[in-house]
Design brief:
Strand order of the largest sheet: 13-12-15-19-17-18
Order of helices and strands: HEEEEEEEEHEEEEHEEEEEEEEHE
Oligomer: single chain
Amino acid sequence: MFTRREALFGAAIGAAAVAAMPAFSATFAPAYIGALAREKVNLVAPPFVHPHDQVAKGGPKIVEFTMTIEEKPVVIDADGTTLNAMTYNGSVPGPLMVVHQDDYVELTLINPDTNTLAHNIDFHAATGALGGGELTLVNPGEQVTLRFKATRSGTFVYHCAPGGSMIPWHVVSGMSGAIMVLPRDGLKDDKGKPVKYDRIFYIGENDFYIPRDENGNFKSYETAGDDYDDMMKVMRGLIPTHVVFNGKVGSLTGDNAMKAKVGETVLIVHSQANRDTRPHLIGGHGDYVWEEGKFANTPAKDLETWFIRGGSAGAALYTFLQPGVYAYVNHNLIEAVELGATAHFTVEGEWNDDLMTQVEAPKAIVTN
């Protein structure tokens, strides 16, 4: 069984590796850093996103974020199956952070002493030190502050990466999220013309690997770390027990469905830190899709389904044209229907018969 002592011992090895690196100090920061404006942002839980400007106002600034790591049980389906989750700010996925290109991201990462494991954060948007992972490893009762320059625009994954087998285990236990780095002059369409969104939603897709007992029932565990040995065996089979959006089956359906109105343009940011996925909006399209998540690249147009590589985040822009319920799914339909990767948009507005109409209602087959 994987114990707290073993977890911290593994973290200590990682910390020793960090200690062997050249010293990093704020004294080596460029002189202009101290003169930059600062903005403190309060993060919100997905699918929602904190307020932000789509076009940057003024020059680069330092954007301050704080995230607290929470280890806690999370119910992931209607049967009460429980994941011993590891989370950023208590949500699976962690919050979407938004800045502009050339801004500085300054994150304070807190690991309360109520936790049992060491954690860190690897930003795919950052340059050097394993995405910041080498500089952010914190044991329970510690906090650390990291600053990096957002040099490339796009959507990027972040995740915990303490080293070795700890990396996939922490990720599939819920410890990932995304950051969006907007171009300073905002998003552009395939012709280079500005495009804006009325609403933004963040969907993080997770694959979970819950161990079963001898009777085939999902097991539960007392604390984070207790499930390590059993979960690793399931993980190595590469067959998830659940594939879900935002932490659980049904997290974005029914009363929790994302809401919009006819005529509104919605930006959907979708991340998957571990496996490939293929989002599809049933009854809609991707008007503009940054499938690889990089806004410097020309967006694809009118996609029916798009591909998000494991370890990346993408973005799709769509203007809703009809009211009703739209299912947003991973179009591996087995994973969508049987394992949980389904969300809903509920859209208000007037129906347009020109786009679709039922010419004749169902009736008995005419035989003459």
